[in-house]
Amino acid sequence: MTSPQTPRRKRANGMESRQRILDAAVAIAGERGYEGTSIAAVSTKCGLPASSIYWHFKDKDDLIAAVIERSFEAWLSAVVLPGEDTGTPLERVTAMAASVARSLVDAPDFLRLGLMLALERRPVEPRGRTAFLQVREIAGRRVAEVVAELFPDLDETAVRTLTTYAVAGADGLFVHREIHGEDIDLVAMFELHAQLLYEAATHMAARSKA
User: Is the pTM of this model over 0.70?
Assistant: First the structure.
């Protein structure tokens, strides 16, 4: 007679199953988009019955939202300005941009799926779209904090303008790579974007003092 599983073992199995489901959903949604993703397809991909998926997630929308949230956590950890001991402000900004780009290369699900959902309009808004817009707002605030920290002389309007430019430019570079393939060096493009943003912020800060 086999002994019953301990609560700790059950939790570990549950977490492992959840990760398998999320990984499968990522693979399918990346190929087929939101509409082409189904619980049946995820079940086939991960090798777990649909009942297991429904045990972890209420429905497909809940699953896609979880995919976005998991990927966003990894992405957000990259939006951290390195300490002052790592170089000049420009070098720090460039290093942060490179870190963000690498996180998107390694875990693009947050932005890929999120942009798909953000650009679509439905009578009933999917929870995944709401989750993306919420975490995107958090990312924007994090970028604004970095801008304000490096350029304390800029007013709120200037910080907001630079934040919008930074996020929109990052979106564009990511989409460009999605269209044209992995031969696009996203890290190098993000580093250039950060340097141009820094120059623009420097110019705006100098003008505000004049």
Answer: yes
